[in-house]
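The material for today's practical consists of a large collection of protein records. Backbone structure tokens are a discrete shorthand for how the chain folds in space. An example says more than a description, so a record of this kind follows:
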Amino acid sequence: MGIIDELIDGAREGVDARKRDLPPAELEAQLSRRGEDRPFQEALSRPGLSVIAEFKRRSPSAGEIAPGADVSAHVAAYERGGAAALSVLTDAPHFGGSLEDLRAARSAATLPIIRKDFIVDPYQLYEAAVYGADAVLLIVRAMSDRELRALYEEARALDLDCVVEVHQLLQHWFPVLARA
């Protein structure tokens, strides 16, 4: 099993545990507290260079990057530096992130934010919306065509933009999203 497969399996286990702690219906009820819309896609389509500044505490390949970093200070600096959008890793076991990092970033900056994680379940889309994301990362390798389309459609229904990551250029994937 490769590292990507381990990360995907870990994401599924993490979702199952969080669902036990906060049932889906209770999470969905929190959507009404969602803040103002910050369109991620629009931020990237403005004239000139559009930088997505990423907050990441560690990675499986690089190890510790910024273990005790203050997410609020980092994202505020990214905004002052001219970033168009923010990326916040929320995977805890492998990247040291959290949903609280997402919430803190939302409070500290006015830029749109993408939740960068291994999204494998609609529950994670609701988490993203509740904790302050404006977009989510969907990794093609992490799911079947049917799951990809369903997650894409659900994200759009929640007014979340999607960045779709493909590791191999295959024409097969483009019709899946074009039909969504």
The chain has nine helices and seven strands. The chain has a mean pLDDT of 89. The longest strand covers residues 85-89. The two ends are 31 Å apart (CA to CA).
